[in-house]
Amino acid sequence: MTTPIARRTFLKGMGGTAGAVLLSSCAGKKPGSERTVAGERPTVRVVSWTLLGFPSPFTYTAGPGYWRMSLLFDTLLWPDSTGKQMPWLASSYKASDDGLTHTLDLRDVKWDDGMPVTARDVAFTYEYYTTKTFTPLLVGIPPKIASLRTTGDKTIEFRLERPNATFVQKVLGTMPIVPEHIWSTINDPMSAASDPRALIGTGPYKLVARDEAQDNEAYEAKDGYFLGRPYVKRIEMLPPANDDPLATMKAGQLDAAAGPPDGARNEVLGPYRDDPEYGTITADAAFSFPLYFNLNRGGALADLRFRRACLHAIDREDIVRRLLTGNGQVGSAGWLAPANPFHEPKVREYPFDRTEAERLLDEGGYKRSSPGGPRTNQNGSSLRYVLFISDSIPIALAEIVNASLKAVGIDIDLQRIDLVRLFGVKLSANYDMLVTLYPGPAGAGPTGDPEILRSVFHSKPPTPLSSATGYGNPEVDRLIDAQVATLDLGERKRQVSQIQKLVAEDLPVATLYYTSEFYAFRKKVFDPWYFTPGGFGPGIVAPYNKQVYITGQKTGTQVRQA
Amino acid sequence: MLGVGTVIIGAFCFVALFAPWLAPHPAIDPFGENYQRPSATHLLGTNDNGSDIFSRLIWGSQTTLIVVVFATTMVLAIGLTVGLTAGLRGGFVDTAAMRIVDVFLGLPILPLLIFVAALAGPSLTVSILMIGLFTWPQTARIVRSQTLTLRQRGFISSARGFGAGPWYVIRRHLIPSLGPVIAANLVFVAGLSVAIEAGLAFLGLGDPTAVSWGAEISRAVGNPQILIDLLWLRWLVPTGLALTFAVVGFTLVGVSLEPSFNPRSNRAR
User: For residue B53, which residues of chain A lie inside 8 Å, CB to CB?
Assistant: First the structure.
């Protein structure tokens, strides 16, 4: 993302990067290649996100905030590279056949201050999360869909009134368990944003350094962690020079780094793919670029022909080819990406077809004022809308969308604004059209659990951040409500397919394209990185699943020996 | 210095005014082949979405000229009005006007510009308004001090003694006498406008659809491919040089004119 801060630090960053490259080239070896000593547990340096909140379970912000917090706190279950939830803080987990009762036994674990972890702590945590009000940027808030009772000191039983297909991930696999004896004394959890007691957890690491001004943090492994001494002994989080993590890694200052979320061309990624020093992994469709229409504004925005014409007018295959050299995919009108196991390929498609776009607009009564000129509404007013676009999205895309719509006679007033303002106009529904990037703060990514469709297409969304403003289809609502209560995978897939078909027909939001998340790492330092299928915690796609730091392996809970 | 500055400004104005004829391609051509190397068709190659870099360099001068003309006109209008009113009326009006000028001069202009432009939203109009609204006080102060001096001169007193009204005095005597001083000051303001517009555009606070040198530098710097295939040499460097030359041109002319017209400079000599 390009931000004013990043630009101000550009020269400094470039200087640092260039200096590091120069120094290391004088030494005659690649920067960072001296980072490993055989037989030692590694220290891994990754990109920092200190600005995304104090890493307590109630003050972190968004995905990067959650994964930092997950180093300090544990959940009852946790996934590995298979995506399957394993007993974690729990020693055993059992669900009844009807999916209504979930029973867990806790391991014999102590909090950092020496007090034992008990079933009461779990009950307290669930109560605390579900009775207090938090910002939507606290992405791992468990939904209140179960009652909880403790049977003994170490056994918890969650009881659901109706089956819920997301319960295991959203509650058991996402909710960090906090100590009752600490948090029962803190009435406003958001205020404990620097209180060291707020970091007392059971997690595998402890925060040993945090400098928000310098944007860095360091976490050190706890030797007494209940699964064994973590394989990665220290995790350092450092700011990337010039907002370019890959180049910073190449300069020897990081051991792993992601490519830009807005995608990159082969010329940028090639040096990492081709260099044997680096390993690379890719997650298809990690990010999507949806075009929202505000149906509440009425007029053409509420006219299906207009929305369809917009999508037909944009050559999305050309965008993927030219901006990404193929490192992306054309968006599905059904929202879920092909990489999602619930993706329905047979939804209505909107290929680039300017003639069809013109036909739809003509049919809608949006006539051109002159041949090749802008169109007007049926009442004679100009067919002109403000299109907000995030400044974290390449200006090239903004220009393409703008020119494509203008080419079919839709006059666009392009407003490129920062993400905070963009979220503001989205939250207040104060927009005509808008292009943003997901996963956003509402976590509505294209590869997550299909329950994300609720936050986009349900007429009563949990947050307006990602919802299709003004859209409501009773059948879509019914199916969204039904799929979450369906435990049979085949049946749930059928329901989710139907939702995708319906929303692709209605097109209240049009996904322009998806980009892949590219991740490169220094193989000699640490190499078992992976993307968790479906994400970890609240659905985080990034490869920072703590399971890999702890075990040094892609699966299971067995810790690898250095 | 004056000659060099005049040539640079002349060249800049010429390119900006005749951009539609000089630029071989449209400013935005989002359907062209991107990242092309330099060729006879694209002298500096193409950018990230296929637009001709050389043409954008030319079109960028037009945006800069628009900002310079309108912002400088605003500064002239406000500065002249406030300075003349304060200088001619004196008393409370003078004191009040000069306190307002002091307040504006005491403001940290750049952070304030960024703050206001960020609140108002990115657009060329906002950039012009911001530059105009925050850079007039110096002009007002110079006009006021010159007016005070001129007021004491015999020909003004005589004119007023013969019954000339304030408008007549302003039009016939003050403006012609103030002209050279204002011109020298406005050249400085023009140079400042170029730099401020580029700065705002660099920070993403300019019109996203306008081709501006500042935005172009920002776009080049933020491009992940800028260090590949010498893209920086044909995109970042020419744009930076164009911007530098424009600012230097105005500064050279301003610096050259100042000793001739600024009474303070004369005294200093």
Answer: none
